[in-house]
Amino acid sequence: MDQSYIIPFVKSVQNVFETMLQLPVQVGAPSLKKPGSPTYDVTGLIAMSGDVQGNVTLSFPTATAERVVSLFTGTQLTKAHEDFADAVGELVNMISGGAKAQFAGKQVSISCPSVVVGSDHHVFGSKDLVCIVIPCVSDCGDFAVEVAMKASALMATTQTASAVA
Amino acid sequence: MKILLVDDSKTMRNIQKGILAQLGYTDVQEACDGLDAISKVGAFAPDLLLVDWNMPNMDGLTFVKQFRAKGFKSPIIMVTTEAEKSRVVEAIKAGVNNYVVKPFTPDALADRIKETMARVVAA
Fold this sequence. Notes:
Chain A has helices at 7-21, 62-73, 84-100, 153-164, and strands at residues 26-27, 31-32, 42-50, 52-60, 108-110, 114-117, 131-138, 141-151.
């Protein structure tokens, strides 16, 4: 995967948590995710389409998610609360939106977020996409942003034609 | 002053409602998407609208176009993750008066609201 797709997510996750939660996030070295390996217990998911295609997940252990959501909403919320998933969805929405704005010269749309709550779940994307895990450390606990994407077929063709020309 | 918050995220509406309350604005109604907002603007007649872009059923840009097509003049602040310059231009052309990119600090949103209302008073 093009490295330029990862850096925007690193910057965006730090910006979202710092701005909305006043929570600094340290980002570790991104690594390749093994196919089929589980994410954490709570996952927010956004699909991207247009010049770039793929999906982005924000995944937390339950206790971390509950601490982060409580900080974000200003109210103590557990995973059972009806507003819990909404808050996780809004976080992944802001992270994805902030990242796509850094894809210079690319037209990209993002979907409305979906949220999965449940331990040992798996997120399967398109088979031709490699998934990169961005490990994150915060005072609320560890979590991860996972990015699986590529340039769309049309965009790749255009880039190849430009390179040849 | 009557304010309509249009955002599919209840969390985001609550955050914005808290900031509005700190500014002294408590006459606030909420809509969960553009379609819901269209159904409320007639009876509520908001003096200011804060509108998200990406929402199910009817997105914020479509709502803004329909709202303006119906002849409503109230100022609209788009509050969205859509940060690209082309998107901002698209929104302004559709009838948006001001723009706030998520994530935002309470001060940033408060400043945009004050700025927008000051422009209305000056016009």
